[in-house]
Specification:
two-stranded antiparallel ribbon, Zincin-like, 198 residues
């Protein structure tokens, strides 16, 4: 709901959810104080406000998603993985993210392949994966990974939310050839950003 990064000059870059539009003045003041001083006390006050906002009580704009790509149909993959690993118990929506929404991180040489938004109960998959060079089993793994976020709650510790905590990692290893999936994830970074030969 709010993320702050400081550049090498100490200047903040802020991304903030619209829920802050109706935040109390004290919360906005604490956020401003944190941006100037990086005060842990001020940040904790902002965090308490975020934690107090139950996603079920917030008005959520409907999000229209596209499930069919040129190569992969996400709805079919989700339904199959949901049956195989979660006994069909999950009701997450799924769709392709907008182009550019999950950019490649050139610094760490990674790609964010997917995300799960709890408030929207929505999985978004990076459209860079809608490519015939991507193994179908890897698409299964990515959808499994995001469905698992819906099934295994995040944990709060040391002042932040942890999505890939120990319990999550144990469940994630249920996927066949988990180590191979990690290797494919790393290998695909360079493959998918290389233009296709014509």
């Amino acid at each position: 709901m709010v993320s702050v990064k400081f550049d090498f000059l100490g200047q903040p870059r802020l991304r903030i959810n619209q829920v802050f539009l109706d935040a109390p003045e004290a919360v906005i003041a604490s956020l401003g104080h944190y941006l100037k001083t990086r005060s842990r006390v001020a940040w904790k006050q902002v965090g308490n406000f975020v934690a107090s906002r139950d996603p079920k009580t917030r008005p959520v704009q409907p999000v229209i998603v596209q499930t069919k790509g040129r190569v992969f149909d996400l709805a079919m993959i989700r339904d199959r993985i949901n049956r195989l690993y979660f006994n069909g118990s999950l009701d997450c929506r799924i769709g392709w993210a907008k182009v550019g929404q999950h950019r490649r991180n050139a610094r760490s040489r990674t790609i964010r392949y997917g995300t799960y938004n709890k408030a929207l109960n929505l999985i978004r998959i990076n459209p860079i994966l809608d490519d015939s060079r991507v193994p179908a089993i890897f698409m299964d793994y990515i959808v499994f990974h995001e469905l698992l976020h819906a099934a295994v709650p995040s944990e709060r510790g040391r002042g932040r939310w942890r999505h890939h905590h120990g319990s999550y990692r144990i469940q994630e290893r249920r996927f066949p050839d988990h180590a191979l999936m990690q290797k494919i994830a790393a290998d695909l970074v360079m493959i998918l950003v290389t233009p296709r030969a014509r």
